[in-house]
Amino acid sequence: MSIRTVRIFRYDPEKGGSGHFDAFSLQIENETTTTILDVLLRLQREQDPSLAFRYACRVNMCGSCGMVINGVEGLACKTNVSQLPPGKEITIRPLNHFPVVKDLVVDMEAFFKKFEETLPFFEPKGADAEPAQIRPDSRERLDIGLSTECIACGCCVSSCTMCRHHEGYAGPAALNRAFTLLADSRDALFEPRLERALASCYSCRTEFNCTEVCPKNISGTRAIKYIQRLALKHARSEPKPAPSPREHEAAPPTAARHAPPATAQPAPGACGQAAPEACRHAASAVDRRTFLRQVGVGVIGLGTALVLGGIATGVAVGPTLAKSQKQWAPLGKLSEIPKGEITTLMLRYELKTGPYVQPVAAPVLVSRLGESLVCFKSSCTHLGCIVRWDALSGRFLCACHGGTFDRDGNVVAGPPPRPLDRYAFRLEGDQLFVEVG
Amino acid sequence: MERNVSIECRKPLQWGELDPGRRENTKIGMWAWLWQRISALAIIVFLALHMTLTYKPFVQLLLLLAVAFHATLGLRVILLDFNLVDVKYQRALVWGLAGLGLVVMGIIWFSTY
């Protein structure tokens, strides 16, 4: 027993406007045995008789009560209250992409028009008195699977964001219908149907929204991808179909090769009633040779892509991995550096790494305190702050963390892990060079 | 059958319009699509930054991340398009490939720096 708040989208065609949500409060005896359709029926009977919604079978068979429940498309009769987050309010709203007639009722004319455009009916290839025998384990039957179970509730079209942006997009439901017939080798309308389905099946962006919401667990994405692959195969085997949509004459030359041995005998198989050479097996049946060829093409393609990608990556990344070259950079004239002092000189040079050239300016601490010359790097060995020479205390001091070095660069105090780094240097006459890189 | 033309329909509702709970219930496939578009834009930005600010490891890391992410999501679509992976594994595919991309990215990153 619980009391749930139900917010329902209301739109009154006589008042117009853009609609609003009405909140109802309903006491529900048992949430697991109460469907959203029960909720709507009770609200209509007990609280607001003007509430409009559509339903017929109440048992997930007719597809009339598709609506958006808590932001997910579903059948009202298939969604139990207990499936929704407990205690929270329930929002019910009409399907997307369809004009709203009243409250939760939408005009699905456009939806069925899209269905019609994909020729959603079976057209036999020839008159046949015998009923077709379809083996349950045949490739075609397995491919089509339960995709024929679509009840045209419109949930998939509502969930698909591409239906909004592509005017001519047939949508997952219509394409799923086309797929079930395209995959059926007994059907005579393969070409015109494929042509129509192709016009829109590339609008799919692989979002899987239709697959996630389908009350019959049909994957619209799978159907659309199947049609795309079918088109690819078909375009390869048959450059341009003969301009006779009704009569589908001899199968493409590849079909004979693809026909599995089972269908070579006339009686069994999905296309038993038609002549075997007329069966379209290029569409669904894949024999070992075709499979191996496809795998071979895939492996070669993948290998080529990997090699090319590797070369491209190597060319792009390689130079940056190379160590920058050592070079001698001029620092100053020895005669200009006073003896018995530590002088800070600015070292300027261009660092070359791979294709890049970067100007560098770094202060160098040149010590002429002792007999020999020492060029200290001015970076503190702790974290690289610039150290300065404090003549008063006779120490190198780092301002960041109190690192202190004596006149020979040895650590006196603070966190630095090692003495100050030194540049290698050489003298050419009066000119002082240090090694950088 | 005659239609009552005097009734005025509300223009169709759109995905997310007056739609409480939609975002929480958006599934991974939709995010995969959306994030691939977003990462494509991010690549443009990071690539421009990378060209102007050479040798900023942080920018390089961001660029590498964006490229790895974009590539894994692209691979997902390719694998599904050519039925190399059954569509029923589409959810696992997003996570699996993202993890793989991260590993490859880590290898590239730590071998470079």
Describe, in plain words, how this protein is organized in 3D.
The complex is a heterodimer of chains A (437) and B (113). Chain A is of the alpha+beta class and 437 residues long. Chain A has 11 helices and 17 strands. Helices cover 28% and strands 21% of the residues of chain A. About 10% of the residues of chain A have low confidence. Chain B is mostly helical. Helix content of chain B is 65%, strand content 0%. The radius of gyration of chain B is 21 Å and the shape is elongated.
Helix content of chain B: 55-70%
Number of helices of chain B: 3
Strand content of chain B: under 5%
Q: Could you spell the SSE succession of chain B in H and E letters?
A: HHH
| Main pleated-sheet profile of chain B | none
Which SSEs are present, and which pair or pack?
The complex is a heterodimer of chains A (437) and B (113).
Chain A: E1 2-10, E2 20-28, H1 36-46, E3 66-69, E4 72-75, E5 90-93, E6 100-102, E7 105-106, H2 109-117, H3 139-144, H4 155-159, H5 162-165, H6 171-182, H7 190-201, H8 209-213, H9 220-237, H10 253-258, H11 288-321, E8 327-333, E9 342-353, E10 356-367, E11 374-377, E12 387-390, E13 395-398, E14 404-405, E15 411-413, E16 425-428, E17 431-436
Parallel strand pairs in A: 1-5
Antiparallel strand pairs in A: 1-2, 3-4, 3-5, 6-7, 8-17, 9-10, 10-11, 12-13, 13-14, 14-15, 16-17
Chain B: H1 28-52, H2 57-81, H3 90-112
Helix pairs in contact in B: 1-2, 2-3
Short description:
The complex is a heterodimer of chains A (437) and B (113). By secondary structure, chain A is α+β, with helices and mostly antiparallel strands.
List keywords for this structure.
heterodimer, A: 437 residues, alpha+beta, Ubiquitin-like (UB roll), Rieske Iron-sulfur Protein, 5-stranded mixed beta sheet, 4-stranded antiparallel beta sheet, 11 helices, 28% helix, elongated, B: 113 residues, mainly alpha, 65% helix
